Amino acid sequence: NFMIKKNSNKISGWIILDKQSGITSRQAVSKISKIFKFNKIGHGGTLDPLATGILPIALGEATKLISFMQSKKKKYSFTIKWGESTDTDDIEGKIIEKSNSRPNKEEIQNALVSFIGKIYQTPPNFSAIKIDGVRSYNLARKNILVSHKPRRIEVYEFNLKKILNIDSADFEVICGKGTYIRSLARDLAEKLNTKGHVIKLRRNFVGNFDEKNKIFIDFSEEIIHSPSFLKKIKPIEKVLDDIPALFLTETEAIKIRQGQKNTLDSFKFHNNLIKEHPNYKKFERIYTISNDKIIALIEIDEGIVKPKRIINY
Question: What is the rounded distance in angstroms from the CA atom of residue 105 to the CA atom of residue 238?
Fold first, then answer.
């Protein structure tokens, strides 16, 4: 029986959980917090209870980078069942409409084109979006009319992978922040003059966190056997791989840690990558490193370096 000792609250980094079906993202976070005694913990993007797959969980100071994680590209694999729509747009809901129409391969592929790019999507009624402070799914469960405004999302790829039978097909999607796969399935079915809902859903990656990084925890077990757990924790800055880093001396790092603003020109620049960038006087997404440790999230505005979030190890 492996338990992290009292110093677990000093641990910072990412657990890439392979979430099992049947629990909410919040429940997964709560269970990990309880098992391993973490106080400061959160997740980087909700997965439906039905869904399995990659759920990045932030520990300690990594919780300050959750917004970065949520804005990453995500890939999903899912199955749509044709001919029936449900009130939740997935297999967990009750059937509300039926259709005898079934799309063929050519019709599906032609329809997918209109869902690629920047599009507007209406979230499902059963979602975690708040309406006047109340979760949408709580209202929907009470049969209170929910009306969401369409939201702009971005879909980078939407592919038909396999027609399983006349009633169902497998798909893959790579999309941006705020995309609901259940809504994509519902809207694709409508486009094809039928009804449809998701019967299977898996998230394959979030940003650069994928299946290779994952750890599976069977929460149904009374005792969690995980001696390699600590080795699987990814460093805080792993989520920042695609944004620039400004390398600082220890003296410069102290100033940033104290919340001081500095001119960009006052830094010694251990590398010139940022200064060579055509927009180097304005960066909204950047971080600082000293002695191989992340110091802070910063922004550069008209050549002034401003700390946004200080990272305390």
Answer: 40
What's the CA gap between 192 and 89, in Å, rounded? 16
> Is it the case that residue 1 has pLDDT exceeding 50?
no
Extract the runs of DSSP E, i.e. beta strands, from the chain: 13-19, 41-43, 52-59, 74-82, 84-86, 95-98, 117-121, 130-131, 134-135, 151-165, 168-175, 196-206, 209-210, 245-247, 262-263, 282-290, 293-301, 304-310
Distance, CA of 182 to CA of 175 (rounded, Å)? 13
pLDDT for residue 79 is more than 50: yes
Catalytic residue of the set 48, 87, 89, 187: 48
Is the pLDDT confidence value at 235 over 60? yes
* DSSP characters over 246-277: EE--HHHHHHHHTT--EEGGGS--SS-HHHHS
Q: pLDDT at position 6, please?
A: 40
Active-site residue flag, 48 = yes
Q: Tokens 């390398």 label which residue?
A: 247
One-letter amino acid at 252 equals E
Task: Report in angstroms the alpha-carbon separations of 155 from 55, 113, 131, 199.
Answer: 20, 10, 25, 21
Q: What is the pTM of this model?
A: 0.85
Reading phi first (left if > 0) and then psi (alpha if -120 to 50, else beta), residue 302 is in left
What percentage of the chain reaches a pLDDT higher than 70?
Answer: 80
pLDDT in tens, 245-300: 888 888 888 888 898 888 777 776 545 556 665 555 566 667 777 777 888 888 88
